[in-house]
Amino acid sequence: MTTDQPQATPDRHFPHKDVEAKWQQIWRQKKASQTPVDPGADKYYVLEMFPYPSGRLHMGHCRVYSIGDAIARFMRMRGKNVLHPMGFDAFGLPAENAAIKHQVHPGDWTEQCITDMKDQFERMGFSLDWDREAVTCRPDYYRWNQYFFIKMLERGLAYKKAAAINWCGTCETVLANEQVEQGACWRCGNPVTTRNLEQWFYKITDYAEQLLNDLEKLTDWPESVKTMQRNWIGRSEGARAKFRLLPEGYVAGKNVPARSDSDKVIEIFTTRPDTLFGVTFMSLAPEHPLVDSLVRGTKYEAGAREFISAVAQEDRFLRTAEGREKEGFFTGRYAVNPVNNEAVPIYLANFVLMEYGTGAVMAVPAHDQRDFEFARKYDIPVKVVIAPEEETLDDETMTAAYTAPGLMVNSNEFDGLPSSDAKSAIVDRLKEQDLGGQTIQYKLRDWLVSRQRFWGTPIPIVYCEKCGAVPVPEDQLPVVLPRDVQFTGSGNPLLQSDEFINAPCPKCEGPGRRETDTMDTFMDSSWYFLRYCDPLNAEEPFSKKAADAWMPVDQYIGGIEHAILHLLYSRFFTKVLRDLGLVNIDEPFQRLLAQGMVTNTFVDKATGVLAVDENGRPKQAKMSKSLGNGVDPLEIIEQYGADTARLFILFAAPAEKELEWTDEGVNGCSKFLNRVWRLVQGTLDACEFAPEEAAALAPGNANDKELQYQVNRAIQRVGSEMGERHHFNTSIAAIMELANAISTYLSTSHEFERMTLGFSVRTLLLLLFPFAPHVTSELWEQAGFDGTIDEQKFPEFDPKALIKDEFEIVLQVNGKVRSKIVVSMNATKADIEAAALADEKVQSHLGGQEPKKIIVVPGKLVNVVG
Q1: Pairing label, strands 360-363, 386-387
Q2: Which pLDDT does position 698 carry in this prediction?
Q3: What is the pLDDT, as a whole number, of residue 563?
Q4: What gap in Å lies between CA 71 and CA 45, rounded to an integer?
């Protein structure tokens, strides 16, 4: 024991700039984050979604990478062989826009952004293995995108077909849906039209059932993310039915000609075959490939094309939104209902999309509200075919569609059947007559990978008049993007490069023309996690041995906004690579953490004052440049240090929830780190730091036992919260409680157990290290420990130290807390009652009267009723 009071250092602040620069240099020089070559059984692959190199990290970046880094550091302390790599999702339109604006090559702009962002990564102290960096815009990476494309082509998983696209005639380019703003090009503001254009696709629909079923294997994914994927895949059981197209010139009311008069059919999918007899019209998506031939050369053509153009300018989501005005146009053509041989008119409708079903819908206004509204607007008949029992529905006077089950009516031989039974009976009839049958439909559509832009992976195809579309041989990859182009904002820059376009046919060596479409950037991010396993391999995308050693990713971290497409494409790609024999796994990401966004208050641009909600509280919104509510991470690092930024981001909210940015919260975390700095420095002279194991500590007095309990409890809590659940905020709360316990020990004890105090300080630093690595590394060195803190193992707790000999009991008088006492673990109920009545404060509030009742809640409280 020692009676020396620790030497406090009041007025000292953690010199974060000097300390952080020092330790970042040390980590860099000794390659502290280098990945073991052979991970063995104790591998742990932690991965955050890689960023787009925009030039600066924002707070969303800081949050996701702080989460990943805390996990990586913790798992290394747990003895795991950790792979924690980083790279850049470096293709995409922003670089091309920068090239247009600044007249620089997008490659030069991107590489400078990468340099700047890597500097910021380092200043945050993230323990990343930069030897495994993957940058998707470099030929050594996108060569393998082209290799995979060829393999997909060989397996029939890549194909080309005409598809409806958004076209800006001013910029002479195809636009993604998100680049169409209120029907206009986001860049030039001019109207966008719809065109049919030959596009390359990946056949993801071949894997729809696997992608759906294998979600059950992902037990460590958020259920909300799995639900989003299920809905996107959209499996529906129903029926397909063929509506024969009637010849041009057919007039309503005429006898329907024989089937032999037309072999063209419009196939529909429905989940309600029981309503087939109620079809009174058909609705086609304006983008449906049959529309052009339906109206071409007819008196309806001009009006149809005007309608199609107007719909093309509408947001696709809004087209199907509830309450949206239903708009249509009659094509002048008819089709035959396969169950009753009635002719039904064909309309174009703004609420029908090619993405759903077949792009053609049988319309049953009596039993579908959307169809009902459309029919009433365009004076189309309504025909009831399902009626509730003991009630009659009138076609003419109905004010809404009847969508519940019922009994079949107006359905020929199926009349009187329950609608649920009629479904299968009508499907059987369709099958017998070769007019349809039972089927499963998916909302999922094949992945359109073509982009008419420069800054992406060139699609490795050469077109030859003699040989057709010929893939570039593997030994001629990569097909490299040219430098001899100008970025004007008009058209695809690749069309300017004769050197790129003109290429000999790989088959006949005759003159050929390269494909000028580039690949969707989701292609880059669909397999990058595998490249990290073997990033320097020049002979193959990765070795199977390396993939087997590291995959699947143990912990994947990224924003909820990527819950559908990126994750779905990555899952699809992994299954394709499995079928190619390149990997042995079905799923790429074992555990998923979808972190919430970072929000902040903002000023309303219209009023110029702080935006508030309906309750008058400051309104929160996602940090963004447009709202002017962003916080520059570099400013926080300069003022408070990287450790403070990391600690606040991890402590302020659970990782899955939104994080509200507050200056008070940042300041509070800064004060805590400064308190730890002073606390540790002020106690070093009073500490003894060996032995290290908690079990070897001397029993000491009551204060020593309490501190030993608090230390071991903190080890247990942080180990459990970080190792099992990745709960960062509660882990940091436990560390803060330990710091408070050490301060209490110092303020209440006159004699100090040097070993207990030393173990407490040592443990405090080890537990805090994954969250604040700079300050803990410096204090560890100042304490004189062997090695650096990043080389240490996570401490083990002593179960015996968590068993208390005494515990605290709250004393109430008539339900109000009046005092507290400490009693032995072996105390009987009578002992506890006697101790409670002997307390001076309890006696004072009883006023000398005998209690009427004494209620003892074991281990918690005593309530004395007077």
Answers
A1: unpaired
A2: 58
A3: 83
A4: 10
Long-range contact pairs involving 203-209 (C-beta distance under 8 Å, separation at least 24): 203/156, 203/157, 203/158, 203/159, 203/446, 204/444, 204/446, 204/447, 204/568, 204/569, 204/572, 205/442, 205/444, 205/445, 205/446, 206/157, 207/572, 207/575, 207/576, 208/233, 208/235, 208/442, 208/444, 209/235
Q: What angle do CA 589, 592, 597 make, to 5 degrees?
A: 135
| 3-class SS letters over 107-170 | HHHHHHHHHHHHHHHHHCCCCCEHHHCCECCCHHHHHHHHHHHHHHHHCCCEEEEEEEEEEECC
Band of pLDDT at residue 631, cut at 50, 70 and 90: confident
Q: Could you tell me what percent of the chain has a pLDDT over 90?
A: 64
CA–CA separation, 429 and 399 (whole Å): 32
pLDDT band at 252 (very low <50, low <70, confident <90, very high): confident
Residue (of 88, 139, 83) closest to 111 by Cα position: 88
Helix (H) or strand (E) segment spanning residue 531:
helix 528-531
Sequence-ordered list of residues with C-beta below 8 angstroms from that of 816, at least 6 positions apart, any chain: none
Residue 433's identity, in one-letter code, is Q
Of 83-92, 220-229, 441-450, 741-750, least confident by mean pLDDT is: 741-750
Give strand pairing partners of 268. Answer: 241
Between CA 863 and CA 213 the distance in angstroms is: 56
Cβ(167)–Cβ(174) below 8 Å: yes
Average of per-residue pLDDT across 578-595: 97
Say what the pTM is. Answer: 0.86
In angstroms, the CA 793 to CA 576 distance is 40
Distances, alpha carbon 404 to alpha carbons 374, 384, 385, 388, 419, in Å: 20, 12, 12, 8, 9
With 90 as the cut, is the pLDDT of residue 171 above it? Answer: no
Judge contact between 485 and 413, C-beta under 8 A.
Answer: no
CA 429 – CA 438 distance, rounded (Å): 11
Report the mean per-residue pLDDT for the chain.
90
* Residue scoring higher pLDDT (260 or 391): 391
- The predicted pLDDT at position 697 comes to 58
| CA dihedral angle for residue 224, residue 226, residue 228, residue 234, rounded to 10 degrees | -140
233 and 212 in contact (C-beta within 8 Å)? yes
Average pLDDT over residues 287-298: 91
Residue 20 CB partners (closer than 8 Å, separation 6+): 123, 125, 637, 641, 642, 643, 774
Going by the DSSP 8-state scheme, the letter that residue 33 receives in this structure is: T
Point out which residues pair with 610 in neighbouring strands.
603
